[in-house]
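Support reply, case 0932

Customer input (verbatim):
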Amino acid sequence: NGTPTQPITLMPYPGHNPVIDFSTNAGSTARLKLEAEWWIIDGFEITGSKGANGVDIRKGNNTVRNNYIHDNSYSGIEIQTTSGVTTADIVNTVIENNVIDHNGVGSGKCLYGGVESPKQCHGVYFATHNLCTYGINNGSIKNNVITNHGGSAWQLNGDTCVTTGKIQNLVFENNRAENNAWGVAFWHNAENNTVKDNVIQVNSWPAETNNDKFYIVRLNNSPGNTFTGNIFYSNNETVWALKTDTVNDDTNSFDNNIWKVSSDIWYWRDVQRSDWLNYKSVTGWGANSQNCITCN
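Our regenerated output:
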């Protein structure tokens, strides 16, 4: 571990542009993995992991910034509570100024139940479902470009967790997410997070994805989150603006956003609707938002 006043920084020698390339490594799960606290990973190209994410974070107080993370076989960056490693909530994770592109590729990508499933691979993935004892709290995800994933630009997954294992108080700000199969997904027990001033566009997605439905925002049993000042956009008629699954999702707040979509299909409380222009009256959200269909 480093310390709050003396973090350990891994960065390029001035004037050099090192590549951390795992593609020729004999190990099946080679990756950059943080199982300590107070580290800063700053300024690398990180690529070629096999059977693993580009960067794994298993403890708190770590920063990943100014990197180009691409073409790894699972997610670009994964923050996950893990038995035997995580001994407290993962707090104060900072992910900023990275380009995270086209992860979840290659032979053996995104295995789920032993089968390749690119929809399980995301740009940035927060997960507590394997160890609900601890949560993920108080992080900052800012100024990243996240593109071309078979899953979501970012996904928060606390599935199977009930009273513990919450993913909360994260701030997603000024990110640009383009052409991921889903824009963003809050998938169980993601609470009290803030998504503000992002551009989230879903016009297309990688050919290898096994997703068969495409959303800009997907909420499942994740209450109390705030979405404000974002631009949500798609020029593709097969992309749906929003899906919520449960009454718990009603307590989210959406306002001051711009929605520009090409389909009137959306889901509210897991029921398909074809009246996107009635979004405000149905949800009670978005009094100061703009939403339109087939508009520039």
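We compared this against your earlier run and they match. Two observations from our side: The chain has one helix and 35 strands. The CA atoms of residues 98 and 264 lie 34 Å apart. Please reopen the case if you see a mismatch on your end.
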